[in-house]
């Protein structure tokens, strides 16, 4: 029985390329310092004495920088390649994390957060394109899951440790986040030397015209439904910690532990889950089920009584929803790409999440201010239901195309 258990895990991790592992190690280092974003709203409200709406606006500037960085990052990935862009984005993002920690004026902080996010998020299209380059059609979903595992393992460590650091000194969060970014760039240079990478990448004939992601109707619908879902999902990191602090009176350490539970569950379960699901059915059906489950999670926030058990149950449900949906979202966009338009598709996918980073704090801040957390959770449940419905019809459409 124990042998079968270990064999299950071994099979889930077998067959991935060495460079896929290296990219995941770099992301693990990078995300181990993820401490600023989950505590930014609390930091703005409690340390800088901004209002909830002002905190939401600052997070919206973070989202605006992210969508701009994703767009430019996708363009540059197709022009200069994924390697140089990742190194540059990690180095510049690291420096700006440290700088932003010294900005205390509302308007200056808005500008600083925008530049920080622009640099930091431009790495996403490049990283996604690199993963696609080093994966095969048979293991592409697992390759992205491995990368997500690294991100979430880093998130579990960073969010958990961040709660303890925030309880001591919020300013230290910016230094830790910045230095891990810089260290990740140095590790990328060490593990995957630039000369080796450039000689290993096939030259793409730029004269060949490829389909544009911005003219792919099916993909644009997919992006719309993804954006609706991600607006809801980001509240888990933006407004849910504020809810736990203000309404349920959890301390920062407990909030950090709940955030860490999300990452630990993904590390323990996702690769095995994806190994057993990949290729069995149209991946969009798993996306649909995950998004529908997220709607249930937001209902739970209103129905369950305050307490540790309720907090743990809510994290478990949203994590299962995440594990079912996000790996197959990555697999869907990569399945529609070629070598010379992959940056476009990666950028548009990253931009959908970045757009949600703009909308999520704005929606969350205004709804909380005028209707309270209860109205926010009901609204997000409805939005997730709309997204799940869209994915279901997209599943029916793509399934019919596969049969025809």
Automatic annotation (TrEMBL):
Keywords: Cell membrane, Membrane, Transmembrane, Transmembrane helix, Transport. The chain crosses the membrane at residues 20-40, 52-74, 94-119, 149-168, 219-239, 254-273, 285-304, 310-334, 346-370, 376-395. It is a multi-pass membrane protein. GO terms for molecular function: transmembrane transporter activity. PROSITE patterns: MFS. It is found in: Cell membrane. Pfam families: MFS_1 (PF07690). InterPro entries: MFS (IPR011701), MFS_dom (IPR020846), MFS_trans_sf (IPR036259), MFS_Transporters (IPR050171). GO terms for cellular component: plasma membrane. Its main location: membrane. Residues 19-399 form the Major facilitator superfamily (MFS) profile domain. Gene3D superfamilies: MFS general substrate transporter like domains. PANTHER family: MULTIDRUG RESISTANCE PROTEIN MDTH, RESISTANCE PROTEIN MDTM, PUTATIVE-RELATED-RELATED. This is Putative MFS family arabinose efflux permease. It comes from Mucilaginibacter frigoritolerans. The lineage of its organism: Bacteria, Pseudomonadati, Bacteroidota, Sphingobacteriia, Sphingobacteriales.
């Amino acid at each position: 029985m124990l042998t079968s258990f270990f064999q299950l895990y071994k099979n889930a991790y077998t067959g991935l390329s060495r460079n896929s592992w290296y990219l995941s190690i770099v992301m693990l280092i990078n995300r181990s310092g993820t401490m600023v974003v989950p505590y930014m709203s609390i930091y703005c409200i409690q340390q800088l004495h901004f209002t909830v709406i002002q905190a939401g606006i600052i997070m919206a500037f973070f989202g605006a920088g992210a969508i701009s960085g994703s767009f430019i990052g996708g363009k540059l990935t197709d022009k200069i390649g994924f390697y140089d862009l990742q190194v540059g984005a990690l180095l510049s993002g690291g420096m700006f994390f440290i700088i932003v920690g010294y900005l205390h004026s509302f308007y200056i902080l808005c500008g600083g957060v925008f530049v920080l996010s622009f640099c930091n998020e431009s790495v996403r299209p490049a990283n996604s394109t690199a993963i696609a380059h080093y994966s095969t059609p048979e293991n592409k979903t697992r390759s992205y899951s491995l990368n997500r595992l690294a991100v979430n393992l880093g998130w579990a460590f960073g969010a958990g440790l961040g709660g303890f650091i925030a309880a001591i000194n919020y300013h230290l969060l910016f230094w830790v986040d910045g230095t891990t970014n810089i260290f990740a760039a140095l590790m990328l240079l060490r593990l995957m030397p630039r000369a080796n990478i450039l000689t290993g990448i096939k030259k793409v004939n730029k004269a060949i015209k490829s389909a544009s992601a911005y003219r792919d109707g099916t993909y644009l619908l997919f992006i719309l439904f993804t954006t609706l879902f991600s607006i809801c999902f980001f509240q888990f990191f933006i407004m849910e910690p504020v809810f736990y602090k203000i309404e349920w009176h959890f301390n920062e350490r407990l909030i950090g532990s709940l955030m860490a539970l999300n990452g630990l569950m993904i590390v323990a379960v996702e690769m095995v889950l994806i190994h057993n699901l990949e290729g069995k059915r149209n991946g969009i059906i798993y996306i649909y089920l995950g998004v529908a489950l997220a709607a249930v999670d937001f209902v739970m926030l209103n129905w369950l009584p305050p307490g540790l058990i309720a907090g743990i149950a809510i994290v478990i449900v949203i994590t299962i929803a995440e594990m079912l949906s996000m790996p197959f979202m990555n697999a869907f966009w990569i399945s529609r790409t070629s070598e010379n338009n992959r940056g476009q598709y990666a950028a548009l996918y990253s931009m959908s999440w970045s757009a949600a980073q703009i909308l999520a704090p704005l929606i969350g801040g205004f709804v909380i201010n005028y209707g309270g957390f209860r109205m926010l959770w009901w609204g997000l449940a409805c939005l997730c239901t709309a997204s799940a419905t869209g994915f279901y019809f997209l599943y029916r459409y793509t399934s019919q195309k596969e049969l025809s």
